[in-house]
UniProtKB/TrEMBL annotation:
<dbReference type="InterPro" id="IPR009057">
    <property type="entry name" value="Homeodomain-like_sf"/>
</dbReference>
<dbReference type="InterPro" id="IPR001584">
    <property type="entry name" value="Integrase_cat-core"/>
</dbReference>
<dbReference type="Pfam" id="PF13683">
    <property type="entry name" value="rve_3"/>
</dbReference>
<feature type="region of interest" description="Disordered">
    <location>
        <begin position="329"/>
        <end position="352"/>
    </location>
</feature>
<feature type="domain" description="Integrase catalytic">
    <location>
        <begin position="173"/>
        <end position="346"/>
    </location>
</feature>
<dbReference type="GO" id="GO:0015074">
    <property type="term" value="P:DNA integration"/>
</dbReference>
<dbReference type="InterPro" id="IPR012337">
    <property type="entry name" value="RNaseH-like_sf"/>
</dbReference>
<dbReference type="GO" id="GO:0003676">
    <property type="term" value="F:nucleic acid binding"/>
</dbReference>
<dbReference type="InterPro" id="IPR036397">
    <property type="entry name" value="RNaseH_sf"/>
</dbReference>
<protein>
    <recommendedName>
        <fullName>Integrase catalytic domain-containing protein</fullName>
    </recommendedName>
</protein>
Length: 375
């Protein structure tokens, strides 16, 4: 087996550097020996004081390299062992440990070692983690089999180790889908609702009942009131089922929190349409994440930027925003299409030759901008 010539050059440079520093230190020691005792005592006091100042400044032990350790180990042979603690800032155990390392280094044939088994490529590790997260029921052997089908031969123990390092638990402990996976799988059959609370300019509290369809992200503003009751919520539910018309038949689940306004009569309106009721757990907003998100959008894009005068004003502003939200606002979950748009015409960047063809329209009392191509 051929050796790398550069490795030999590196070892030679390290050896020459170490030898050079030792020779310099040895010459310095000889110069000290020929000097008078008084001169050496004075220099020793100066060096000790300087050492104390430097230690206070660095706030800890100095960092020594191999040459420093070798030199201190050699000087320790000239000092009686009982005096080591006063002369050296290192303990006897430290000096002995340095010596053991030098001996171990002497008998370590690192240049004779052969390369071991090559490591797993980063792309394969990423693929393993991706498969585990996309398939909660898959264990490490199932992932190993899928990799083999793709042409990547890897040991099952290696797959297990990669998942362990990534913090992914064994399959039986992560077999259940996350709420995000569950909601995404059932999106076309889910509608969710929640109450939005708005404070007017005179600090009067208004309540808005909001519904949103998960599959299309279509938003429904059922009603606005200052005095919500269970009967009022039931009536808004009935109005919604009539507005949905045929689409109500595609919905199978409704999600809401444990607000006491969502009474048994409210649930019965949707059960009569063949829907199941899912009540979220306490303090678990992720179970109703889509509705929580749209309420946050209403606040950020509209309500935090305008003063509401009263119930009629809030109703008018929300209805204007509803037209913008369902008819124009793009949604990431729908590939940047609005809820009421099934197909969206796309244009290439080369088609935009005149910026004057893009016109802005201010909607919702001028708070929201919409852009259109000129007719």
């Amino acid at each position: 087996m051929l050796r790398d010539p550069r490795r030999g050059c590196d070892h030679l440079e390290v050896l020459l550097s170490l030898l050079y520093r030792l020779v310099r230190s040895l010459l310095g020691l000889l110069a000290v020996l020929v000097r008078s005792d008084l001169s050496k005592d004075v220099e020793l006091l100066v060096l000790r004081h300087e050492n104390q100042v430097l230690r206070r400044q660095i706030g800890g032990r100095p960092r020594l390299d191999h040459a420093d350790r070798l030199w201190l180990a050699a000087l320790s042979r000239l000092v009686h062992r009982q005096q080591w603690a006063g002369v050296f800032r290192v303990t006897p155990a430290t000096i002995l440990r340095w010596h053991r390392k030098l001996v171990a280094r002497k008998w370590t044939y690192t240049d004779r070692r052969r390369p071991g088994r090559p490591g797993t490529r980063r792309q394969v590790k990423t693929l393993i983690v991706r498969m585990a997260r996309e398939n909660p029921a898959w264990g490490h052997r199932r992932i190993q089999g899928e990799l083999a089908r793709l042409g990547y031969v890897i040991a099952a123990s290696t797959v297990w180790e990669i998942l362990h390092v990534a913090g992914i638990k064994p399959a039986p402990r992560r077999a259940g889908p996350t709420w995000r996976q569950f909601l995404a799988a059932q999106a076309q059959a889910i509608i969710a609702c929640d109450f939005l609370v708005v404070e007017t300019v005179l600090l009067k509290r208004l309540y808005v009942l909001v519904f949103i369809e998960h599959g299309t992200r279509r938003l429904h503003l059922a009603g606005v009131t200052a005095h919500p009751t269970g009967a009022w919520a039931v009536q808004q539910a009935r109005n919604l089922t009539m507005d949905l018309c045929d689409r109500i038949g595609t919905l199978r689940l409704i999600i809401h929190d444990r607000d006491p306004l969502f009474t048994a009569a409210f649930a019965e309106v949707f059960r009569a349409e063949g829907m199941r009721i899912i009540r979220t757990m306490p303090r678990t907003p992720r179970m109703n994440a889509v509705c929580e998100r749209v309420i946050g959008t209403l606040r950020r894009e509209l309500l935090d930027r305008i003063l509401i005068l009263g119930e009629r004003h809030l109703t008018r502003v929300l209805r204007e925003y509803l037209i913008h939200y369902n008819g124009h606002r793009p949604h990431q979950a729908r590939q940047q299409r609005p809820p009421d748009t099934e197909a969206q015409h796309t244009r290439g960047p080369a088609e935009l030759t005149d910026l004057r063809s893009i016109q802005r329209e201010a909607v919702v009392t001028g708070m929201i901008s919409e852009y259109h191509h000129a007719a």
